[in-house]
């Protein structure tokens, strides 16, 4: 009965309480006993829990008996909560009829609230605004109501107030979902059209496709076709998302559920793709599909060379569940064998790095992240380069282009000057602003993506004392003037420290890399020269002076266990060092080059 289904998402800025609200709803719908109820049920990965950021979405079907006496199936389609994943968010929203727009009563509307609202509007969703955290002493529900009404143009009489933390107002939200969100449309008798919005990997069952059935139905034994590739698979099981997967006979138009069809890799079930039946295909795929491509690239090297095999296995394992992660073999004279990896953004990169180090216990060195540049050579061939090692011979480059984004930054008015300066420093163009609310500015600016992937977000947070919020979309490629900046330690190029930079930044970048390395490289028995160069021209230089006396000498002798402990400790320290030429460079030195002050 489609009338008794409601499909919705919760959209919010990070930390406004999405997971907490979702958990409250689950609790109210009696899916779990109190004993089973763990905080933040929906976020399962450790890192998600620790950072409080939803990376992978999890969806749940809640049976809800409304005040009209009917039982409804409320499908909460969870969305990832970060700008790097906005395409996934848009595919999840396309699978819903409505959305709860959650706004923190103390923080008010943020850049991501706006960005997500636009995504919801593009998908013609009915939006119910929800003001959360009304229990906070600093809550200002009236001010936020005004923002929602005046600036977002949403209806004030739809606004729900709640505290996801103590449960106030959550029952009313469930009721509002039933009353105000439309039931799904679609025809059960039409040929199958199902939209994939997520895929996860189960080691026993293979890829679990999360999908919304738009038209038709699908059941065990059907031969399905994934329309973007034409690949065909036999359905092993279909079912609903409860706390665990719950098999059912069939999924029909309007429903949200999962399909198991022996698909080996999540990469074969692409978000936005349409599933149909081989024997009775639909005429056209659903609109809005596109391939998600990595935009940030970095090479990963194990610190201990014998961790290489483990790194291969770990990356393969991560990729099972993270189709957006791409990697291929790479090698460095300084660091040995590693992998060139592609990520959706910097946060994605950090999450992968942390998982490798924490879950797989592999210490890594990352190279400076890079975007993908386009070079047109003098013979008119075009090449894409995301690795400084592949920088073409400068005399053969006819044209260089780099990717640009449109950044949207929401700040209190008083930070306007500082933010404007930051954007100018990063080669911003076409700046613009308007006042979505009195005292707050939405500042838009076109920026080279390469300038943003370093520390832009951290800098923005610090110059706005945490008040600035940021969102972006990719625009296009524009003409640029790039050089390859090399770092030399004792006269030897450390290839893993090379970066592609805009000519105007080269000196400043080179100097800061030299300064950072000087801080990080421990003094050794001889003087170490650190230089930055473009081609054969040295543009910056520092020295690490030699040790004056042997401080380790007095540690030896004495009790044997103490000695052993010391050796162990040294060995652990060594693991985090990499020898380049005759110089030992610690892992932290490689990382420090990524940060600028
Ligand atoms: P992402 O997963 O990053 O999207 O964050 P989220 O929006 O899911 O936020 P989450 O539910 O993790 O909540 C963020 C923080 O706000 C947590 O520390 C919660 O305990 C707290 N929080 C959530 N709801 C409320 C509320 O109603 N009142 C108060 N005081 N705190 C809340």
TrEMBL record:
Pfam families in alphabetical order: EFG_C, GTP_EFTU, GTP_EFTU_D2, LepA_C
Signal peptide positions on this chain: none
Organism of derivation: Desulfofustis glycolicus DSM 9705
SUPFAM superfamilies, per the entry: EF-G C-terminal domain-like, P-loop containing nucleoside triphosphate hydrolases
GO molecular function terms noted in the UniProt entry: GTP binding; GTPase activity; ribosome binding; translation elongation factor activity
Name of the protein in question: Elongation factor 4
Purpose: Required for accurate and efficient protein synthesis under certain stress conditions. May act as a fidelity factor of the translation reaction, by catalyzing a one-codon backward translocation of tRNAs on improperly translocated ribosomes. Back-translocation proceeds from a post-translocation (POST) complex to a pre-translocation (PRE) complex, thus giving elongation factor G a second chance to translocate the tRNAs correctly. Binds to ribosomes in a GTP-dependent manner.
Key words of the record: Cell membrane, GTP-binding, Hydrolase, Membrane, Nucleotide-binding, Protein biosynthesis
One annotated GO biological process: positive regulation of translation
GO cellular component terms given for this protein: plasma membrane
Main location: membrane
Catalytic activity: GTP + H2O = GDP + phosphate + H(+)
